[in-house]
Request: fold
Amino acid sequence: MTNQSTVSLKTLKKFVVAPNQTIEGVRMSLTDIDDQIEALNAAARRPQFAFENSFDQVQPELEKLQAQRFSLEKEEIHLTMTSRGYPEELDYTPLGWLKKGSLLPALFIVNIRDNAVCLQVTHCKKSVTSFNLCGEYRNWIGQKERRYPEIISNLYKEAAQCIADNYDSYWEQTTIARAQFQGVLPEATRNKIKQAIKSRLFDDIFVIAEAKDWSVRSILVAKNDPYVVGWVNRTNQMFIIDFFDPTPLEVYIKEQHTI
Reply:
């Protein structure tokens, strides 16, 4: 279990793009890997190969190539973002950090299109049945929910278990923790968000802020100044759009978790 007061700098990992790589070089490597994957798939589809259980022989090599391809895709995105003015990629794993004492999230993330973010935990006898992280927003129909990327939602697994422990019930029930950002975004930041939307580089844009205090079943009012980040679904990457008037925890995350 990780909390903000016990994290050691030695446990934090930073990854960098190889300085000699270019977008063109990465794309050539991607093409080469795609050709290798297609050749393996074609070979495995041949009747004589299938008879020899070649799928089992090919699978490890396919998995290795697919892992290499995903890594190259991330490099391509990183290099593209750098060329378009977004050089800082954020390691978003600190979203899973817990506050000492309450063992609730130290940070929360909310889509700029949403009114609030909800951590919904279904539990019984201190056992979590299911949980998810989603945004709340209103349209002409009424209150709606927007699911957040699964890889981000999964970072709140420990927090979900803590909620199940603290709000234990003999019968299955759903406990909801809500968070809402009510700080003021500077005009310069709002302009950067507009530019990021127009760029069409990001699938979503989020605000990340430190949660000073959590209130389960009620809306948390957070007035801390946050990160504004862009999210890329294809490679599960997050890039900083803007960052202003930070809290000490937010400064620490930027310094130690910027890739």
